Amino acid sequence: MTDQQKYAEWERARLFRNDRVVQAPPAGTVARTAGSPDPLAQRPPMSLALVERGKQRFQIFCTPCHGRAGDGNGIVVQRGFPHPPDYAAPRLVNAPDRYFYDVITSGHGAMYSYADRVPPRDRWAITAYIRALQRNRTL
Ligand code: HEC
C-alpha cells in the first residue's frame, strides 16, 4: 500500500512522449476562475448554412410552442400552454440579436431555459433563422 506503482507529480514519466507527468490541458480548456466566455465573441459569421442549421434546430426545439411561422400558435399552445408573443411584434423585431440568444440561454417567464439542449453556436443559428422569419412576416 505504501509503495504503489504510480508517478509523483514532477517525476520523469516515460509513459508520455514528453517525459512529463503533468500534461498540458487540451486546447480550448477554460480556467474555472476565468468566468464564462463572451457569447458575442463566439458568434459565428452569418451564412446560408448557419440559417439552415438554425431552421432545423428551431423546428426541433421552438415550433412546439412558437409555431413554424414564429407567430406563437404552436401545437402545445393549442393544447393550453401560455401563448408566447409573436416574433413579428415590433418589440421583438427591434430587439437586438443578443436578446434572442439570452432568452434561449436563460428562458423567459413561462419559457424554460434551453441552455442544456441548444449549445451556444446553435443559439446564434436559431437567432439568425428567427430574423429570417421576422423579415418574412413584416415585409
Ligand atoms: C414549451 C413552450 C416553448 C418552447 C418550446 C419555446 N418557447 Fe419561447 N416562449 C414560450 C412562452 C410561453 C413565452 C412567453 C413567456 C412569458 O412572457 O412568460 C416565450 C417567449 C419567447 C421569446 C420572447 C421573450 C419576450 O421578450 O417576450 C423568445 C425570443 C423566445 N421565446 C424564443 C424561443 C426559442 C428561440 C425557442 C427554441 C429554442 C423557444 N422560445 C422555445 C414558450 C416556449
UniProtKB/TrEMBL annotation:
InterPro entries: Cyt_c-like_dom, Cyt_c-like_dom_sf. Gene3D superfamilies: Cytochrome c-like domain (1.10.760.10). It comes from the Bacteria. Signal peptide: none annotated. Residues 49-134 form the Cytochrome c domain. The keyword Ligase does not apply. Pfam families: Cytochrome_CBB3. Keywords: Heme, Iron, Metal-binding. This is C-type cytochrome. It comes from Sphingomonas horti.
